[in-house]
Amino acid sequence: MKMRVLREISREALRGLFRNRVRAGLSMLGISWGIVSVVMLLAYGNGFDAALVRGFHGAFGDGVNILGGGQTSMQAGGERAGQRIRLRFADAEAVGQIPFVKAWSPEYFQDVPIAWQDKQSSYLARGVAPAYGSMRSQVPSSGRFIDAEDVRLQRRVVFLGSEVARKMFGNTPPVGQAVRIKGVRFDVIGVQREKVQLSNYRSPDKESIFIPYTTAGQLWNTEYVGIVVYQSVSPTLDARTTAEVKKMLAGRLRFNPADDRAVQVFGSAETQRIVGPIVLGLKIILTFIGVLTLAIGGVGVMNIMFVSVTERTREIGLRKALGARRGAILLQFLLEGLVTTFAGGAAGVLLSYVLVWMFSPRPFLSELLDDASRTADIYMVLSVQLLGICTAILMFVGLVSSFVPAMRAARMDPIQALRYE
Questions:
Q1: For residue 361, is the peptide bond before it cis, meaning its omega torsion is within 30 degrees of 0?
Q2: How is 227-275 classified by DSSP, letter by letter?
Q3: Model confidence, pTM
Q4: CA-based radius of gyration for the chain
Q5: How many Cα neighbours within 13 Å face the side chain of 363?
């Protein structure tokens, strides 16, 4: 019995929409425009976030940190403040022995002249270990990165940054060629794949060359390590790993582990703390603008429903006089409003898919960073989570814009409704 009544109410609601199809279509158009605004703005915000993540991931993988010596600002172990802290290879090895450290590498720096045939220039040379390649996203476009045998045998091999390879070799394949670094012959074993890098130290990776750290001692003094790069076993343990590293080094180098200036640590966690609030603020602003646009569409639906209720006042009075209950009237007009809202929302989602396909990617960082692959641009993506958020907003707007006119219709006095002209 209840199902039959519900079916009849649904038919009446659809008949009401069909009789006023032009009006209903305009209401749907307002909702569609609102949902397109919400979806596109949220998709842009998500794409902006993803572009920044890709950019910083080119400098630091998950849980990766760089550690450098500093200057003490606190007294410790009988040592006065202001002492310079310098790291040696043994300190880097000690960092690698900490249970929370997954991978590590020393990093030695020096600007060196590099020559091939009649071309010569100066670039930053980095003496590193094999683990450095995965931690710092040094993916080869050709050849390979430094391996354990290169380090063990102190081979004179070099891995070129993408910009170095382009400027030195042009269209000639660099792998297998021999270059001279400070007058010493090195064989090119690989070339870095183009990557986006929003953060760097000393020099961008694409403008650097990489050699085994054991070979670096043949070219310059490697008594002190420039940087220690390490990666925690899990990004969730990043803070604990850094605390353990500082505690261990404080014992070895006699400084207070609470002294933040004794050693400098920077990595993926710090970049997230910097970027996170910026992205969150942008998403909140874009969401507010989109919801406001959708709410305007909801007001349009509400106005149309009020007009519909006013025009059908005598019909409502007649139905009540014949025994229609308040709940049935309420449900009929509520269904009309919800169908209008969700039909417009569905059309808006479909239109959003088309617009995302047409306008993605949007220019962002690729031109600034000379990234031909365009990985640093904003790729708008309609994720399930995003559609879920839009559906929830649409349900709220649909219920509010439909419920208020429906309540007005349900509360009408049948005698006054029949007298309405």
A1: yes
A2: EEEEEESSGGGHHHHHHHHHHHHHHHHT--TT-TTTEEEEEHHHHHHHH
A3: 0.68
A4: 33
A5: 5
Only one residue has tokens 């670039």, namely 123
Give the Cα separation of 116 and 165 in Å (integer).
11
Q: Which residues pair with 128 in a beta bridge?
A: 212
Tokens of 62: 């998950």
User: Both tokens of residue 242?
Assistant: 């850094």
Amino acid at site 164: V
Antiparallel, parallel or unpaired: β 178-181 and 227-232: unpaired
Is 123 in a helix, a strand, or coil?
strand
The stretches in the chain having pLDDT less than 70 are: 1-27, 55-61, 75-81, 197-199, 268-269, 301, 304-324, 326-327, 332-333, 363-376, 406, 409-410, 412-421
Of 111, 114, 112, 119, give the one whose Cα is nearest residue 170: 119
For the chain, what's the residue count?
421
- What is the rounded distance in angstroms from the CA atom of residue 235 to the CA atom of residue 360? 31
Phi, psi of 162 (to 5 degrees): -60, -40
Q: How many Å apart are CA 390 and CA 286, to the nearest integer?
A: 13
Query: Do 238 and 267 form a contact (C-beta atoms < 8 A)?
Result: yes
In this structure, the strands spanning 184-192 and 157-160 are parallel
Residue type, 354: V
Angle between helices 326-359 and 21-57 (to 10 degrees): 50
Which value, to the nearest 10 degrees, does the dihedral of the CA atoms of residues 388, 393, 397, 402 take?
Answer: 20
